[in-house]
Design a protein that fits this description.
alpha/beta; Aspartate Aminotransferase, domain 2; globular
Length: 485
Amino acid sequence: MTGQLDPGQISLSRGSGAPLADQLYAAIERFIAAGAVVENSRLPTTRELAAALGIHRGAVQAAYRRLQQEGLVSGKVGSGTVVRGRRPGPANRPSLEDLLSRRAAELTDETPLFPKAPWVADFSRLAPDEGFFPLEEFTRTLAYAWSRRRDLWMYAPPLGLEELRGEISRRLAEHGIARSPEEILVVSGAQQGLDLLFRTFADPEDVVAVESPTYSGALALARLSGVRLLPLPMDAEGPDPGPLLARGAKLVYVMPERQNPTGITASEPRRAALLDAALSSGALLIEDGYEEPDSGRRPLAVRAPERTVWLGTLSKDLVPGFRIGWIAAARPIVDRLARMKKATDFQTPVPLQAAVAAFLRAGSDRKARASRAEEVALRAGAAAAALAESLPEIPFWGGEGSNPLFWLHLPDGLSGRRVAEAAAARGVGVAPGVDFDPRGEDRPNVRLSVSRVPRRDIGNGIALLAEAIHQVQRGSSAALAAPVV
């Protein structure tokens, strides 16, 4: 319709390196300035435009918010986004959306799924099955720490409770990572640890290298901090260090063991190449050890201890609700991070630190991990067999041993987001590739995790996922075959 925004006239360059939100803003601004999109016309909804352009909805939201900040559009609940074509006068009262900082405005949730109730199989979450955790034993430990030790009612040392840092130090030493208790900072989960690292060592517009795809929580923090992301494409060997050689970075964030979302454990040659590239660029390397390493390959923190930060947690390995994590690094790095942590929350709850220390000291976590790993290996085997039966044409990474992650490579051009939505309609949860893409692009991948799915439900869940993939394939083929008029 004349005067309306036509998504077919918008051209975005995915290989230029410019954020898609900025490109979309500039395109719509040009149409408004040229009169191609007239005043009082309505723009498509963010969901509609994202689907039409094949990009993440968050990029459209960010572009619309910037248009609103510039006074070119207005947004009201129930009436959509309306073109103003001029800047608002001083009497116009800004909405809450207008008051948001750019960093807050660009924060988006992961792709929402709308399942029928109940789930048939929820492969979307990488979280441990709490059924393997000795809850009663830990509750007794926590009750003792809370009721009998009044020293835990006060503030802990700046780095965290010394007895917990001692246990963490001993555990790290088992993997060749030599860190004293004074080189360990206890944090409220690895997410807070990563937030502290971004706040302490990166300014807006600094370059941070990340694997592509990578952990969605890291992407959210990177966008909040305003840094520029440098993607390191993943292959079956691990992240490609090539982009680091062409362009330096201030921080490099990687997961060499069971990388989330791909499940890949980086090979020895790839670890060496990545380390060389990071050190050559002068970057600080962040090694996310969200699970204890069990591949037998040396962590990066062993190879370059002065330039590598180890990020550990109990959340993915045992219980997400504990929110206990740690940063292990050279003392000057830890001291700076502790100063930043004190400015935000003082400390992680002390009784919980004491209970976790006793739990680790007794080896109770090892027993829970061993029983969980045995069951996850059986679940992974069941998933691999089901994928071979129901989706023999779909290759994947991960799923070996007790690795719960499967990264499915859908046919080129197929929308991972639409597959996730079609699967959710059948009661099957999977995580779409767009949630893990540094540029927020809808890639032809989905992630499956069997960490919480009972074996009896895996085959049926993957059979329903196959139906969802074939449905989206038929829809894509029909769209391509439709005549252009």
